Amino acid sequence: MYLEGGCLIDVLKSHGSDYPEDPDIISKRTTDSCSQSSSGSWMLIEEARDSAVTGAKQVLERGLMQYGCAHYRRRCRIRAPCCNEIFDCRHCHNDAKNSINVKGNHRHDLPRQQVQQVICSLCGTEQEVQQICVSCGVCMGKFFCDTCKLFDDDTSKEQYHCNGCGICRIGGQENFFHCCKCGCCYSILLKNCHPCVEGAMHHDCPVCFEFLFESTDDISVLPCGHTIHMNCLKEMQQHLQYACPLCSKSVCDMSKVWEKLDVEIAATPMPESYHNKMVWVLCNDCGANSEVQYHAVAQKCLNCKSYNTRQTRGGTTPPATSTASATESQ
C-alpha cells in the first residue's frame, strides 16, 4: 500500500524525483528567523508539511488507473525471464504463449515469483521489481506484493497475500481463512463446518479442466469437500446435473426432488413380472448398500432415503409362495 506522511517525501528524495521543499527545513528556517514560537509560525509549518505531502502524493498517483490490461490496472509492465519478452502481466504472457497459434513444445507459463524486471509505463525505465519507479518516482501499483511480484492499482479487490497458499488472493483477508489440510483459502463462513479434502483445490476443475488453485474465477466448495468453478456448477445445474463429477454425491439439498420421485414411483406401477424383483444398490450420498425392489424410474436408499443410487448387482427373486409363507409366519 501507499506510504504515509513524511515517508512519501523520503521515498521521492531517495529516487531523485521532484518534490516540494522538505517541511523540516522550512520548520528550521522559520524557527531560526523567529525569536519565539508563535501560532502563526506553527501554522506556516503545518501548511508547508501538508503541501509537501500533497505534492508527494501527486507524484506517486500520476497515471493512476490509466494503465494496465484486462487483468490488472497498473503502471508497469513485466519482462518475462523465460522468453525475454515484455507483457502487461503474467496472465497476458500465459494467454499469448499458450494460444493455438503457438507450437506445442513452445507453450509455457510464467511462474509469478520468477519476474525480476519491470518497465515503468510512464517513463519507460526498466528496473528491478519494486513499488516506486527509480526514475520518475511514480507508484507502479497501489497494491504491491514483493513475493508474488504483483502490482495492482485497483484496491477495491481487497488483495492480500496468504502465506499458507504462497500467493496473493482477493476478497479481504478478514473474510477468509487458510485451511492447512485442504491447502487453500476458504470463506470464513466455512470455518469448522466444511469437509476437509487434502489438496482440495490443487487439481483441475472437473468440468473445464482449468487449474483451480491459481484460477481467477469464483470457486465453489461442494458439500462433499470437492471444488469446482462457480460458473461450471451453474452450467451443470442448467443441464439437470446435480451430482459431484468426482464422487457423485449430491451438490445441494435434493429432498424436494426425492419427494417428487416418491410420488412418480407410486403412480407408475411395474408389470407383475417385476413385483418381486430385487436388486442391490449403492448410495452415492451415504455410501450404504441396500437390497431394494427394482423400479424402472429409480431405486431408493433404505438408509438415507436418497434416490442418488446406482445398481451394483441383481438381487434374489424368491417364488411368490415363499414370500407368502414368510409373510404368514411373521
General description of the model:
This protein has about 325 residues and is α+β, with helices and mostly antiparallel strands. About 25% of the residues lie in helices and about 20% in strands. It is built from 7 helices and 15 strands. Helix 1 crosses helix 3 and helix 2 packs antiparallel against helix 3. The N and C termini lie far apart (about 80 Å). The N terminus and C terminus are likely disordered.
Keywords:
330 residues, four-stranded antiparallel β-sheet, three-stranded antiparallel β-sheet, disordered C terminus
Please tally the β strands and state the result: 15
Sheet with the most strands: spatial strand order: 2-1-3-4
Helix content: 10-25%
Largest sheet: 4 strands, antiparallel
What would you report as the Rg, rounded to the nearest angstrom? 32 Å
Category from helices, strands and their pairing: alpha+beta
Q: What percent strand?
A: 15-25%
Question: Terminal Cα separation, in Å?
Answer: 78 Å
| Succession of helices and strands | HHHEEHEEEEEEEEEEHHEEEH
**Low-confidence region ranges:** 2-9, 17-23, 318-330
Global morphology: elongated
Average pLDDT, to the nearest integer?
Answer: 85
Number of H- or I-type helical stretches: 7
